Amino acid sequence: MSASPAPPADPIRLAKRELRDHCRQRRDRLDEAHRTQASERIVSALARWGPLLSARVAFTYLPMPGEVDVQPLMSLLPHVRWAIPRLVHEPVRRLAFHVYEPGRLIQHRYGMLEPDPALPEVALEGANVIIVPGLGFTRGGHRLGYGGGYYDRLLAAGAPAVTVGVCFEALVLEDLPLAAHDLAVEYLVTEDAGLRSCRPAG
Questions:
Q1: Dihedral sign of CA atoms 192, 166, 148, 64 in order
Q2: CA distances from 198 to 30, 43, 102, 118, 164 (A)
Q3: CA dist., res. 84 & res. 91, Å (int)
Q4: Confidence at residue 56, expressed as pLDDT on a 0 to 100 scale
């Protein structure tokens, strides 16, 4: 009895995989000085942004190697209650956000730091702003992630928070194949363009 043929590959998934490789290569070509200066300009734009200035609670992230470093925001805006993500695998895959305490961080095998799981978890409904990292973004706010789906689930949860994507200008994409579950952030910030709205005009 012959084996059943393999199901056809998902063309959107394949296209995203190729784009991830392209974006990683492009990001790797940015030298450290460029990434540092670009991160500083992005942080400066966010530190002057009204929704973040008025926020009580903000979700942010600690960067993996090569990503935009927004950590200085937490010192620049000490009135904000900051929370950072931890990858949770069971019973469902999700991001759990915990209160940020710099002395209680754990190295994840992916290379980023995570909060100690014993720290208080902050409810998604309590966040006023969510800062979203990504390998790349379109000008319309659609995100190219790393393939785990964690931020897809976060954005799909429908939190009342304002969402802002963060990436280097070199990683702004002209186009991105989209699946039904792909949702856009409301704003995007890069070192060259600063903060811009991703909401459709009109």
A1: positive
A2: 25, 19, 32, 36, 9
A3: 20
A4: 98
- In 148-171, which positions are buried (b, 16+ CB within 10 angstroms) versus exposed (e)? eebbbebbeeebebbbbbbbbebb
- Cα dihedral 50, 123, 68, 24, rounded to 10, equals -130
The residues pairing with 197 across neighbouring beta strands, listed in sequence order, are 187
pTM above 0.70?
yes
Task: For the chain, give the number of residues.
Answer: 202
CB 185 within 8 A of CB 163: yes
Distances (CA, A) of 170 to 44, 46, 68, 138: 18, 19, 12, 11
Token pair of 194, please?
């600063």
The pLDDT tens digits for 55-66 are: 999 999 999 889
Which pLDDT score is estimated for 202? 53
Instruction: Judge whether 85 and 96 are in contact, CB under 8 Å.
Output: yes
Q: How is residue 184 written in tokens?
A: 């856009």
